[in-house]
Specification:
490 residues, alpha/beta, Gyrase A, domain 2, Four Helix Bundle (Hemerythrin (Met), subunit A), Rossmann fold, 6-stranded mixed sheet, 15 helices, 13 strands, 43% helix, binds guanosine-5'-triphosphate, binds magnesium ion
């Protein structure tokens, strides 16, 4: 068992709440708990495990009663950390929690480092590293979809898949190395071809997994959605209408928004990071110029663009220039014609003849408006439901906005019953790519008739990369970095 000492922390967030939990893990967790806990019934010091016991926390030196609590003790090894654990449900305030923590520290516990409970769970073999990381992703999930992906990883879906590939590869490696150790059993050409096919197959599977990262990134960080358009078309009003709160400043003066205003929003289980930007035009001053520059950065960064036009005044060069830029960036785009509550100055049918192709067919494209064009009024809310529907449709559509962009992917419709593992973590992605590169080198080595030693060296490199993902091989620095991101008490 790892961790000879007993750690303690407040596991609930700071602030006031109904309850707050002080958690202990380690060889003396139950001992410490029983020294500070006075059961309402029965004798002090005798605690039944895996029952919630009602009682008081009292200072064993002075007898002062600190809080009224529920205590649970769990003997090793069937616990989160696989060590002895105790959880004290205090009242959720800084004084009862702080004083209870102080008391258990005085009784011999040490304050836990961030993520140390989960780190112990990993070190004690309860979970692999991908599962430990999934705990953090679940805590941080900003949408149901992100939560689902984290849960799939937490249950070991990703780690299992990677271990599976590593096992296949280790099998090949063992056979390769047997031939090095026993040169008289020279590898037949047929066997080498078999290794080649096996390695190629594994490399393909690893690449497929690595490619799910883009999808995973969208799940975890949200789909970056930029609201773009010339000044005064109603971009900030649109952001506010989408969020349902007046987040951005709206005035009738063109050039109001100077900086990118970004907010998270949950759209049907997908998390979106919506960015309201400064209106794009020839800037009047340096502040505005910087704002415009940031708008263009937001465009570069965006997964989805809402290009806003004013339906009450005819579009001009400024609008066309922005559309050209969106087109050049090859971005998914929905054209939003705002201010439908005012008299129309131009027909949306005219858009059909405009020179851009990025605007894709939105669901309902067969309706009264050309595909991908959604008229709304940010002021009255008219059309907002259709816009949200169009945005969801655009997220769910697979593949690039045009055939020419091989890099773009989109969120796929996930069936919770059969969620296949998705790579959401950049560390995993770069290790998978590292493994694929090593296998590529192994393949070249076989094809060019290199000795088995060289091939096995590359295969071992790939195995090392895969092992680092699940934590089967790994340096202490990697672990430290990963667990430092956790909150204290998890
Ligand atoms: N009638 C009507 N007015 C709107 C609508 N949306 C926005 N406006 C008005 O248009 C003006 C500009 O709105 P903003 O939301 O500040 O426009 P913006 O595109 O963010 O402007 P900049 O930040 O300057 O680029 C304000 O006076 C809004 O009240 C709408 O749907 N209908
Ligand atoms: Mg604005």
């Amino acid at each position: 068992m790892n961790g000879a000492d007993t750690i303690a922390a407040i596991s609930t967030p700071p602030g006031e709440g109904g309850i707050g939990i002080v958690r202990l893990s380690g060889p003396d967790a139950i001992g410490i708990a029983s020294r500070v806990f006075v059961p309402a019934r029965g004798k002090k010091g005798r605690i039944k495990s895996r029952r919630m016991l009602y009682g008081l926390i009292a200072d064993p030196q002075t007898g002062e009663e600190i809080d009224e609590v529920l205590l649970t003790v769990m003997p090793a090894p069937r616990t989160y950390t696989r060590e002895e654990m105790a959880e004290i449900n205090c009242h959720g305030g800084s004084v009862p929690l702080g004083r209870t923590l102080e008391l258990v520290l005085r009784e011999g516990a040490r304050l836990a480092l961030p993520g140390e409970f989960t780190k112990r769970a990993f070190l004690n073999g309860r979970m692999d590293l991908t599962q430990a990381e999934a705990v953090l992703e679940l805590i941080r999930a900003k949408s149901e979809e992100a939560g689902r992906a984290a849960m799939a990883q937490l249950k070991g879906g990703l780690g299992g898949k990677i271990k599976n590939q590593a096992d296949r590869l280790a099998g090949i490696c063992a056979r390769l190395e047997a031939s090095i150790d026993f040169p008289e059993e020279e590898i037949e050409t047929g066997t080498m071809a078999e290794f080649l096919a096996g390695i190629e197959d594994i490399r393909q599977d690893i690449l497929v997994l690595a490619r799910t990262f883009e999808e995973g990134r969208l799940l975890r960080d949200g789909v970056k959605t930029a609201i773009l358009g010339k000044p005064n078309v109603g971009k900030s009003s649109l952001l506010n209408a989408l969020l349902g709160v007046p987040r951005a400043i709206v005035t009738e003066i063109p050039g109001t928004t100077r900086d990118v205003v970004s907010e998270y929003m949950d759209l049907d289980g997908h998390v979106l990071r919506i960015m309201d930007t400064a209106g794009i035009r020839e800037a009047a001053d340096i502040t505005e110029a910087e704002g415009v520059r940031r708008s263009l950065d937001a465009l570069d960064d965006a997964d989805l663009v809402l290009c806003v036009l004013d339906g009450s005044s005819a579009p001009n060069e400024e609008d066309f220039l922005i559309i050209e830029r969106i087109k050049a960036g090859n971005k998914r785009c929905i054209l939003v014609i705002n201010k439908t509550d005012l008299p129309r100055a131009w027909s949306v049918q005219a858009v059909k003849s405009w020179p851009f192709k990025t605007i894709e067919s939105a669901p309902g494209g067969a309706g009264p408006h050309p595909a991908g064009i959604i008229p709304v009024s940010a002021k009255t809310g008219e059309g907002m439901a259709a816009l949200k529907k169009g945005m969801i449709g655009s997220l769910k559509r697979k593949g690039p906005p045009t055939e020419t962009s091989p890099t773009e992917t989109s969120l796929t419709e996930t069936n919770p019953a059969e969620t296949s593992p998705v790579v959401t973590n950049i560390r995993h992605k770069s290790a998978l790519n590292g493994a694929a590169r090593a296998l590529e080198r192994a393949i070249t080595a076989i094809r060019t008739g290199m000795p088995a030693e060289i091939v096995s060296m590359e295969v071992r490199d790939a195995l090392h990369e895969l092992g680092a993902i699940t934590g089967q091989v790994g340096a202490e620095e990697i672990l430290e970095k990963i667990f430092a991101e956790f909150c204290i008490g998890k």
